[in-house]
Input
Amino acid sequence: MQDTLVVENKYAKDERIKARNVNDTFESPDFYQIDDLLDEEHKIVRKSIRDFIKKELTPIIEECAEHNVFPRWLIPKFAEIGAFGPSIPEEYGGSGMDYISYGLIMQEVERGDSGLRSMASVQSSLVMYPIWKFGNEAQRNKYLPKLASGEMLGCFGLTEPNHGSNPSGMTTNYKDMGDHYLLNGAKMWITNSPEADIAVVWAKNEEGRIHGLIVERGMDGFSAPEIHNKWSLRASVTGELVFDNVKVPKENLLPNKSGLGAPMMCLDSARYGIAWGALGAAMDCYETARRYSIERQQFDRPIASFQLIQKKLAEMLTEITKGQLLVWRLGKLMNEGKATTAQISLAKRNNVEIALQTAREARQILGGMGITGEYPIMRHMMNLESVITYEGTHDIHLLILGRELTGVPAFV
Ligand code: TGC
Ligand code: FAD
Output
């Protein structure tokens, strides 16, 4: 990871980057007048995030992705616009918004880049949510305001080197040493970890029961090495979490829920956000391809005039529109506390899949230009290859649905 300050200064001087800023005229497609289903607050939230992404992220994102730079300097700005803890009550620094607003924030941020949406959804759904939901009052007051303001960045450690799709097999564990817990083990593929100030870590106690613990940067025996050579989410930082006899104070255990159900509840919230977010990436690819097809001439006419190009665009828009309706309804169910894990799986699975298909088709419409960083499509496509794997792989979500439909788990 390069020194972010050096990179920031370099970017500030770059005329080409300023030009990109002016050119971001993105508007989301709304073929079924879904905006009529949103209230004024939703539209205001969406506009403010969209403006922020155009002003702050679009100008730098291609270079960040190319040079593998996590733009940490944007974190206070993400906080300012309410991207951290949108559904967390205001008394803890959150914004107390509903789930449709949360979804729209994720959509707009991922329209900018899935890596930055990852950073924000981990902070909100996987760090702030468990501290709020399973923590005590002292933990909420100690951590949530700082996470909401961006003073602290968090990460979430569930996956292990040998336990990805089956987190219940985790071996990370802690022992009760009387005045503290002793934590040992390792987590893998952890978004934000090398930059994080705290980690919400899931580990087994001596009886094999899973609990959440808050581990702070700087604790003896705790390290978070970065994972290098990613061809996906290059503007997001991913790493390991290594615990070598880490003494965790007893007050850092999240007391109000144990068992795999606790991290799974966090995943429900994060997967919901991804279902919206992936649509943002799809919209950006669709809009880019639609505009390009009108401008690009071959055989003395715009490529938009060819039926095969129109077919691609029409199918992209159809899938995006279906995805929009899906997440709007899911958002209503989330607001009412009625959304089920299987419903969330269906939306995450569907919307990430159609986003990837959209990116692949859009890339074809741009021909050779589609593989360059002059357009966002290849970056979105590579990012989405992670999104389709994390928070439960595409096939695991299918199996979650299969279990719901038949009552028979087919995981083993
Ligand atoms: P299973 O038998 O399904 O459940 C075990 C216990 O947990 C309870 N439970 C839930 N409780 C509340 N809400 C939920 N959503 C729940 N899901 C499960 C369940 O009732 C049971 O409780 P009890 O009391 O009966 O014991 O567990 P299983 O071991 O059979 O696993 C099922 C499976 C495969 C679906 C699950 O393990 C799974 O979803 N695996 C995928 C793993 C995954 O999604 N990992 C994500 C890691 S985090 C991440 O990727 C972040 S990326 C972030 C970013 O950058 O954006
Ligand atoms: P595996 O579980 O080894 O799966 C490999 C293949 O086997 C997949 O195709 C899978 O679908 C298939 N498979 C597995 N089990 C079955 C089965 N029963 N039936 C059929 N097929 C099966 N984790 C965190 O805890 N926190 C994070 O912040 C986080 N961030 C991430 C960021 C990135 C960029 C990535 C890539 C991953 C991140 N993850 C994180 C981990 C992510 O959740 C896991 O990668 C994911 O759950 C899959 O686990 P795995 O990679 O070990 O794959």
Notes: The mean pLDDT is 95. The two ends are 39 Å apart (CA to CA).
